[in-house]
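Why predict the complex rather than its parts? Because the way molecules touch one another can change local conformation, and only a joint prediction can capture that. The input here totals 484 residues.
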Amino acid sequence: MNTEITVSGRPFIHQHAAHCESGVTSALFRDQGVEVSEAMVFGIGSGMFFGHLPFIKWVGMPITTFRSRPRTLFPKVAKRLGGKFFTRQYRNAQKGMIELRQALKDGHLVGLTTNIYWLSYMPHRFRFQFNGHNIIVLREIENGFRVSDPVLDHPVDCSYEDLERARFARGPLEPKGFMYWAESVVENPDFRRACLEGMKESCYMMLRVPFPFVGIKGMRYLAKNIIKSPERLGFPEACRRLANVVRMQEEVGTGGAGFRFMYAAFLQETAELFGSEELAELSQEMTAIGDIWREFAVVSARIVKQRGQATDTFAKAGGLMLICAGREEQLFKDLDELVRKLRS
Amino acid sequence: MKAKEVPQDITFYEGEKRACYALNDEGKYVIVPSTGWEYEAVVNGLAVEELAAHLEETRRAVLAGMVSPLCYHMESRQMNPQILARTAGIAVFRVKRHFRPEIFARLKPALMARYAKALALSVEELKKVPEKNVEKGNNK
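Output of the joint prediction:
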């Protein structure tokens, strides 16, 4: 853990987080004196999700996502915990940068949405054209800003040019310099109610959205697709698709198995909050599911690496995913029932 | 996943660490920093190799006079014509047209400057491609 001093003179403790948006949101709340962990934010904001969108292509491959859309988690958490946030987008890059400086001068801890490619402090292989990365700016330094990026385990420096490019990058999901800071928060928010709302929505998203390709339905669709893919697409192309799914699952921002563990951590915390045995059991089940997701990644990576000589097959990889789908379905059904019984 | 099982393989994080949620000995969730996972490196390596191979192909095509250096620099920034067009404020069909070397060679300095700014390069850099194959790492 690293302590930094913000412009307002308050100490800021940089905490390492698994996911950028939940990390930033929890840091903003903590700075306002509301102790809330990253996992808690992730659960309250209904970050849990699954979607496989075969018709939307990203670098030529269908998108698979393991979490909710970028920039939906933060507003949900703000609403459910009763925080008032200043949010603003800019058309003009210069104006956006001037207002950022002004906000820092006024002593705010500012959250920004950026494009991860232009943040040159990131390790090279994390840098790709993705417009949904969130960071916190602590204060201005010479030629740049001191930045707390929750994905890294220490605060970093970011140059002025880099940040301007990153904030005003173009392309899908343009950040348009999106900037936010806390205006006021409720001192003792009703965590129980917020958790229930978050869980309720997650259950809906995973089980009952009337649209194919999302939630458990999406998982099953993708699993069956993977099993059939070597015949339909040929072995090399099937490998590419499979590798892409695993990449989406394990890499920064979309780490699928990581999100399952984070949700398990959330369930564990809520179990304490409600004093509920059942929630603790669900947390353990979620951990077990996360482990299967990891096994899926291992099996897939072996298929990709050994090019058909391995004993692992696409059927096995797809089968593992079907197991995940089945168990997650049961878990969310149980959670759905439980949520109806629990009282805030 | 238990805290002890959090992978600590040295892969491509360049000394950085990632946070993983794992159970400690008492069965409570804690954040454990991870230095990388070999299986993740496999799939990431595949994607990086593919990009690099594609970029090298484009570089050769530029040297052979088939496409303009603009195409190479766009790909080295991991952009596609749509993103480049929006960043530079030039219509997609014009960007695609400027991939033709003979048209790119006649571009006005003002347009050149806009592309250079969009790609964070100098105009000089934009006009040529590296003579030798660049080392791994998808950006400089």
